[in-house]
Write a structure and sequence with these properties.
Length: 388
């Protein structure tokens, strides 16, 4: 099947391919061997039905991607043959950024110069790539990498109050860069739940004010137990607290004092997520944070009450039954203490997602007040009666 006849066929038309890939292996190998005669560079190449993802590889100096008429993509990768390749055959590049002063791209360029933070910006460029793959006076987006980038590392952060008491702690997977002149550095990281990010800009001058920005992703739909540490951390990011740093092991040291008047989430949200995370310890069904605007105050109180009982704390409420079997009406005196036994199946529905389970409560009545304690199983108490 000659190339001309093949080119006239429609993609996917016919009961079988007019030419099998195995039939052109020798031909492609021959073409590649001829292409591999460049004394300075070697080439990778191919055609893909999807846009190829270009990532850094050892020896890779440039890559090009070109769209083809059949909605496929042709790519070339250019690799240096030796450390002297770019000295013997340099690749001249003329680059002119097209952003205006005061734009976000202009600020990103300043951050690259001061801290080494990578950025992208629109530009006009010309470059003389080997193999005739260059471009002349083209417009596009240019990605500028970090001048000096550190390997990934782990960083622990904790928030402490003015007395040094730890309020929250969180671990971040970090990466960082430094400016070409070494006067500043940039670092960014995310916590294990991937809802809390931090970005820091650090100057080496002794009197410089260091800056760290924290970002919290929307909490709706997140697994409560997974994001609870990040929510607690965000809750305490407020003055007069301060942040301390440490590596994977070792002691903490002061980094910055916080100046925000309020944390990133209010205490009520911190408590709500913590209660959901506590309930998660008693069920195998994953508990996600609901849209707080779609649940009632009564439902929120029930969630807190369940979490309190699980923690083994005391919940106080009113006894609303008119009679107790075995206790004659009017026979209790003011201040008299009585314990009763009753079985109450406790089953709560989580917005149609199934029951939370069955639990035990100990009711200890003093007058018209009762205190509930949480256990697994059913509500049970011992039945006894006594006077103070």
């Amino acid at each position: 099947m000659n190339a001309r006849k093949r080119s006239e066929a429609e993609p996917g038309d016919g009961p079988a391919a007019l030419l099998e890939p195995s039939e052109i292996i020798d031909h492609l190998t021959l073409l590649d061997s001829v292409l591999d005669t460049d004394p300075h560079f070697t080439y990778g190449h191919g055609i893909s039905p999807t846009l190829p993802a270009m990532e850094y590889e050892p020896g890779l100096v440039a890559a090009t991607i070109q769209s083809l008429p059949n909605e496929k993509w042709l790519f070339f990768k250019i690799y240096q043959r030796s450390a002297q390749s770019l000295e013997e055959r340099p690749i001249p590049i003329h680059l002119e950024f097209t952003f205006a002063e005061g734009t976000p791209e202009h600020e990103a360029n300043d951050q690259w110069m001061r801290y080494g933070k990578p950025f992208e910006a629109p530009a006009r460029f010309s470059l003389d790539l080997p193999g005739g793959l260059g471009a002349e006076d083209k417009e596009g987006t240019v990605s500028v990498p970090a001048p000096h980038e550190r390997d990934a590392y782990q960083l622990r952060m904790r928030v402490v109050d003015p007395e040094g008491t730890t309020l929250a702690d969180l671990e971040f997977a970090m990466r960082s860069t430094a400016a070409s002149d070494g006067t500043g550095a940039w670092a960014t990281g995310t916590d294990p739940s991937r809802v809390m990010d931090n970005e820091g800009f650090y100057d080496t001058a002794s009197d410089a004010v260091q800056r760290v920005n924290f970002t919290l992703a929307p909490l709706g739909g997140q697994v409560a137990a997974t994001v609870q540490p990040a929510v607690r951390f965000a809750r305490h990011l407020e003055a007069p607290n301060k942040i301390q740093l440490a590596g994977p092991v070792g002691m903490f040291k002061d980094m910055i004092e916080l100046d925000g008047a309020q944390g990133m989430v209010p205490p009520s949200i911190d408590r709500f997520v913590t209660s959901l995370a506590t309930i998660q310890t008693r069920t195998t069904q994953v508990i996600r944070i609901p849209d707080i605007t779609e649940i009632t105050n009564g439902e929120i109180r029930d969630i807190h009450r369940v979490a309190t009982l699980i923690d083994g704390d005391t919940s106080v409420g009113k006894w609303r039954r008119e009679a107790i079997e075995g206790v004659a009406p009017g026979s209790m005196e003011v201040g008299e203490h009585i314990q009763i036994q009753l079985d109450i199946p406790l089953q709560g529905q989580d917005r149609g997602r199934g029951p939370r389970g069955r639990h035990r409560r100990t009711d200890d009545l003093v007058g018209d007040r009762c205190r509930d304690r949480w256990h697994n199983g059913l509500y049970r108490t011992k039945s006894q009666r006594h006077r103070p």
